[in-house]
Amino acid sequence: MAIKEVVEHPAKVLSEKCKEVTEINEEIITLLDDLYDTMVEHDGVGIAAPQINVPLRVAIVELGEERDVLEMINPTVIETSGAEVDIEGCLSFPNLFGEVERPTYVKIEACDREGRVYELEAGGFDARAILHEIDHLDGILFDSKLIRVVTEDELAQMYGEEE
Ligand SMILES: [Zn+2]
């Protein structure tokens, strides 16, 4: 387990389609653990393998108020519905925040670290976070979906200044 350096935009690894994981071995388990350590260190709610320079279809997100960690290996989107505009950020764009339209519901299929295939349904911000991370695995970055950039002053006003 280790905290890795986060790759920042622009970088080739961030804009490429990542490869499927063919075998869940020690390397993949270590990757999942490194992703978690790196996400926590940088105070993110999700991170994808290309963001630590590994072009494989692996990503994690924290879900709900409990911030349960969801590990996704080879995730695929089965279904989406709805649409909502909300503010997003990304660890690979340290100073960029903005409004992005995403579905309000998503159903995915993915593999966990034991190699079990699972299905998961999520809504609201959880759906947004999952879709943001799966986009990373296809080399799609949130800046390409930005409807409007939100300044740091606006963010501070929206969420209040934390003392
Ligand atoms: Zn991101």
From TrEMBL:
Classify the source by domain of life: Bacteria
Provide any one GO MF term from the record.
Answer: metal ion binding
| Cofactor names | Fe(2+)
EC number assigned by the record: 3.5.1.88
Q: What's noted on cofactor binding? A: Binds 1 Fe(2+) ion.
Looking at the keywords, is Cell division present?
no
- Which residues carry out catalysis? 133
InterPro entries, sorted? Peptide_deformylase, Peptide_deformylase_sf
Biological-process GO terms, alphabetical: translation
Which positions does UniProt annotate for Fe cation binding? 90, 132, 136
Catalytic activity reads: N-terminal N-formyl-L-methionyl-[peptide] + H2O = N-terminal L-methionyl-[peptide] + formate
* UniProt keyword Ion transport present: no
Q: Which UniProt keywords apply?
A: Hydrolase, Iron, Metal-binding, Protein biosynthesis
Family of the protein in this entry: Belongs to the polypeptide deformylase family.
**Could you tell me what this protein does?**
Removes the formyl group from the N-terminal Met of newly synthesized proteins. Requires at least a dipeptide for an efficient rate of reaction. N-terminal L-methionine is a prerequisite for activity but the enzyme has broad specificity at other positions.
Q: Which NCBIfam families match?
A: pept_deformyl, PRK00150.1-3
Q: What is this protein called?
A: Peptide deformylase
Name its species: Ureibacillus chungkukjangi
Query: According to the entry, what is the taxonomic lineage of the organism?
Result: Bacteria, Bacillati, Bacillota, Bacilli, Bacillales
